[in-house]
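Protocol step 4 of 5: obtain the predicted structure for the target chain.
Materials: sequence only (see below). No template structures provided, no constraints applied. The aim of this step is simply to have a reference model before the mutagenesis design in step 5. Sequence pasted as it appears in the construct record:
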Amino acid sequence: MQGEWAGELVGPDVWETCRELIPAGSVFAFLAGHREVLFPPGMFTDMYPSSNGRPSLPPQVLAAAVVLQSLHGLSDFETVQELRCDLRWKAACGLGLYDTAFDPSLLTYFRRRLRHSADPTRIFTKVREVVAATGVLKGRQRRALDSTVLDDAVATQDTVTQIISAVRRVIREVSGAGETAAEHCRAHDYTDPGKPRIAWDDEAARAVLVDALVTDALNLLGHLPEQELGERAANAVGLLALVAGQDVEPAEDSDGRDGRWRIARRTVADRTVSTVDADARHIHKNRTRHQDGFKGHASFEPETGLFTAVALTSGYGPDNHEAAVARDLLADEDEGRELTVLGDSAYGTGDLRAHLQADGHTLVIKPPPLRRAVPGGFTIDDFRVDSAAGTAACPAGHTANLGQVKADGARTAQFKRACTDCPLRQRCTTSKTGRTLNVHPQHELLTAARHQAATDPGWQDEYRRWRPPVERAIAWLVAKGNRRVPYRGVIANNIWLHHRAAALNLRRLINLGLTRANGSWHLTPATA
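Step 4 output (structure tokens):
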């Protein structure tokens, strides 16, 4: 049942009695004065469908607390301590001077209701409506795109820890799995969550343990009682099957496979790094920087310093690539609105360029660097590709026909014999059979983009002037310890990222002079 204000505070009204102590122009003062308008009770009605039961704490109090929590990067416990002891927090959330706030678990329940509601990111949506009402983005057509890696909230687990944890989860979640484990699993006492006691500096002992644990996992999976599994049980079984196979391979000796298992001499691309948070992934932002966690994406208006959209993904796979997420980041812009989209080379794919240009947007996106078959040698831009005629000419003047269109739309041209006595071969290819040219489906589009980026002073000035501010926006997102996400899973952390962006947008609007007069939001002329 949704709670409402009873009209009685515990002690004096902090905002009324201590207003001079609350910093003017702060988020605290703004929420104290406009909390009920920003978060009206009707905004949360669908989250409390039942009219029975004990009334909850008014949701606008929790919404204000979540905004401040996201702004300052605090845990639930720290947030409640601030509400109990800090006059600014009490005033912002409408608490009385002697109010001891509430149990931290209420914040957990509030986020859970948000997560299962029709609009889990409604707080961000509400702040975005305020942005639209002020008209601050009117006439500002630039959108800068960027992403960053966010650390997960759990410790990365090695293969041994993951298998033991996954076996324990199956025993806990699947009916009858405990008896099966007692009969078929001998490598470890699975009532003990710790690691087995072995000589960890002994390579042979580690190998024996890994083989035994994988064998236990397979035996458990193979002897589970036949039954219909619920969601939690099915997830536990699937996770065990995943971690039991992702890091190992059959051991081999001179006679071939011998039935044992060993740590694989490779790493699977989509490796699960922890059974505690199965959504977290090992992410490479570039060749030298890698982290375990998620990837946060943002669309940013560089003149006003406002986030127009954010998203959090697992960071692996084509659907989580920057170029794929960019479509969703720009999807909520006004239909027919032509934008200037700025981005680094991660957004420079041919598919995204074709999509954005079809929507009428102007692209100031850095093209991906070309790969050279030979260091300092020729690139595809040194070839003359005529897609209409179906031919490609190399720098030496040899011509080859483009092959049939592949499933992904690409075509290839093979020069082969033409490379045999070519004087430019050392600068073109190291292949014994000659140069093979791979032509992208959007070859002309990408070639034109590279040419523009290299030769157009206007493009270069636009990129240098307006692309860097998005780095400042990313720095705002991860400040105050927010490089590490506070929750587990993509869904919960995506909601958190939206709350973080909403709080930053609100602070930015207040700095720009956000006020409310005559029933509408606007920016004061002196600071707009």
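Step 4 remarks: The first helix runs from residue 14 to 17. The radius of gyration is 29 Å.
Proceed to step 5.
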